[in-house]
Amino acid sequence: MPIQEEGVTRKLADPFDYGGGHINPDKAADPGLVYDIDAREYTKFFNCTLGPKDDCETYSGQLYNLNLPSIAVPNLKGSVTVWRTVTNVGPAAAAYQAVIDAPAGVEMFVEPSVIKFSSGSKTATFGVTIKANQWVQGGYTFGSLTWLDGNSHSVRIPVAVRTLCVDHPAETYMLIQIQVLT
């Protein structure tokens, strides 16, 4: 039997239901890369979302802008670029290659696709561009972005995307009516 969620609906489980899996303590002790975030980022997110302040002019207020070890885009129309910064906590000289498993219905690009670290550089910032291929009003689809160093480190983050063709489902009905009338 496929795994089902525990709620009243008993729908098939998805990554929101079953999470990231089990923790491997040996690998957790040597993760290779970490996604750092501090309280200032959360404070800025909440302050700029609740009411724009002076330092909010370039801040979109989207949750996917937080430097979390996951990406969730709940309202993709067209394309969006999400930025993340990783810190190397492994060997000083390291290079990681991006491996993309794009969610169904979208294309994903990572720039740069290779990040390199040396004793002088411990952090790297990269952009993940997610572009809708289908114009459907749908549920979430799931994928991942994994950074591989060719040795023992595999740093995977989940990606969840929900594409929208319109902001509100009622607009879909209006669009259909307009097309029928013209």
UniProtKB/TrEMBL annotation:
Pfam families: fn3_6
Keyword Protease: yes
Lineage: superkingdom: Eukaryota
Single Gene Ontology MF annotation: serine-type endopeptidase activity
GO terms classed as biological process: proteolysis
Claim: Cell cycle is one of the keywords in the record: no
Keyword annotations: Hydrolase, Protease, Serine protease, Signal
Coiled coil: none
Domain called Subtilisin-like protease fibronectin type-III: residue spans: 65-161
Family: Belongs to the peptidase S8 family.
Name recorded for this polypeptide: Subtilisin-like protease fibronectin type-III domain-containing protein
